[in-house]
Here is the input.
Amino acid sequence: MKKSYCPIDTFINAVKGKRKGTIILHLHQGDKRYSELVKLLTDISERMLSKQLKDLEADGLVRRTVFSEVPPRVEYSLTELGKEIHPFLKGMYKGGILLEKENDT
Here is the structure.
């Protein structure tokens, strides 16, 4: 995670990226397999989704669990840190809805 002078910037750097906030919001609803996330996030490529998940895992927000089954199964879930930042992302989501409504009028 890129640290900066201000903790706000550190937070923004961790969640900034193609749909990282949306991934966290979806994982807050429960653990998801990779294929489930692909279906939920149709506007980004699988390559980009994979990159964002790796970034979120590296920043300690998402946990990747591999089950030794045939075929292999991988699930993604939020870490405790990921759960802690969820309310802030939910607030940003609501703020985005309000701004969209304001700009539509």
In short: The chain has a mean pLDDT of 90. The longest strand covers residues 62-67. Strands lie at 32-33, 62-67, 73-78.
